[in-house]
Amino acid sequence: MTASRVLVLNSGSSSVKYQLLDMADRSRLAAGLVERIGEETSRLVHEPLAGAGGGRREQTGPIADHDAALKAVAAELAADGLGLDSPELAAVGHRVVHGGTRFTRPTVIDDEVLAEIRALVPLAPLHNPANVTGIEVARHLRADIPQVAVFDTAFHSTIPDHAAQYAIDAATAARYSVRRYGFHGTSHAYVSRAAAALLGKAPEEVNVIVLHLGNGASASAVRGGVCVDTSMGLTPLEGLVMGTRSGDLDPAVIFHLARVGGMSVDEIDSLLNKKSGLLGMCGDNDMREVLRRAGEGDEAARTAFATYIHRLKKYIGAYTAVLGRVDAVVFTAGVGENAAPVREAAVAGLEELGLVLDREANAVRSGEARLISPASARVAVAVVPTDEELEIATQAYELVTR
Ligand code: ADP
């Protein structure tokens, strides 16, 4: 029996999301999450899939730390006959947010790699520490199988210097590793490849603009399967309007808030990352609420929606210019996959760029990859559900079985 299962772990500061996949047929055996780790009201939701074990289970009660969280997950999996001590487990794949310039591909984690991921914490203080904790706990649990890091930044490592560098003093930039790294790379990689497949082409044959619109949002320009630009930068703050992040703004806004508003760097950081975007403009970060309120004529929600769409259009235009020829514009993630009004508004008026929507196809709700432009359109518009867990499992499995 060859081991073909991969456990995918996405560890956040107070949460762990997981999926167990069988790479023999790319099926999902179980999925779940632990949230509010470290609080009294921690919650574990576990769902065995593909006919395995019992039904969906939920438990609340204190889970002290990531170690306890992963042990609780292991117990749930064991109860379904999917124990992590199984010889069928081939690897654990870890989502790691920041790989800096050092990590451009999935990497088997040893002590040295772990130290390097830790050294990248200053670039991703909100994310890498939790990723490191998840790796440490999983290594402890199964020291005998490979632990693989799959980096959110890796797919963007091909972005040329002229798109990656900020136009600032070169010595200062080098000293502090200031450049554009980009994020959501696992999703952009998966979706751009799936979009090529939807068009019946190889990734090398097509140029694609991917719009990953979740609570965080980013755009990328992918030429022949290779990423050449993306909207997030040194951190996930740059680019599109997001649920709670501002995206692009004049950096002088920060000086102004500090000098005139008397705000500290931490206060401004929190303002721009957590209290801006849709939430900041209208009080709701969930696009469903924004759409509902805008539909009722709520002025703040309408303006927030218009601002979100305006930014999206600017990136579609910019990446059309970057790519020269565009074969497809692809929507993905929570908003991109589900919000037909966002897709409609984003491409409205862009006929000159070859973008036309089939309104009926756009209105269909589906979990499948699909075209939402007429067959005659010069540029295909598509919806492709992202699957970061499958992509992480695939990359990890390929690495350890090669
Ligand atoms: P995350 O960035 O947290 O991974 P997701 O990709 O899951 O986010 O997207 C979550 C967001 O998707 C929610 O905040 C919500 O705004 C949006 N969303 C989900 N379903 C819908 C829907 N039917 N219509 C509009 N927006 C939706």
Automatic annotation (TrEMBL):
Substrate binds at residue 95. Mg(2+). Can also accept Mn(2+). ATP binds at residues 17, 212-216, 286-288, 334-338. Pathway: Metabolic intermediate biosynthesis; acetyl-CoA biosynthesis; acetyl-CoA from acetate: step 1/2. The record marks 184, 245 as: Transition state stabilizer. Gene3D superfamilies: 3.30.420.40. GO terms for molecular function: acetate kinase activity. It is an enzyme of class 2 (transferase). Its EC number is 2.7.2.1. Mg(2+) binds at residues 10, 388. It comes from the Bacteria. The active site is at residue 152. Its cofactor is Mg(2+); Mn(2+). It catalyses: acetate + ATP = acetyl phosphate + ADP. The keyword Kinase applies. SUPFAM superfamilies: Actin-like ATPase domain. It is found in: Cytoplasm. Keywords: ATP-binding, Cytoplasm, Kinase, Magnesium, Metal-binding, Nucleotide-binding, Transferase. Catalyzes the formation of acetyl phosphate from acetate and ATP. Can also catalyze the reverse reaction. Belongs to the acetokinase family. Homodimer. This is Acetate kinase. It comes from Streptomyces bambusae.
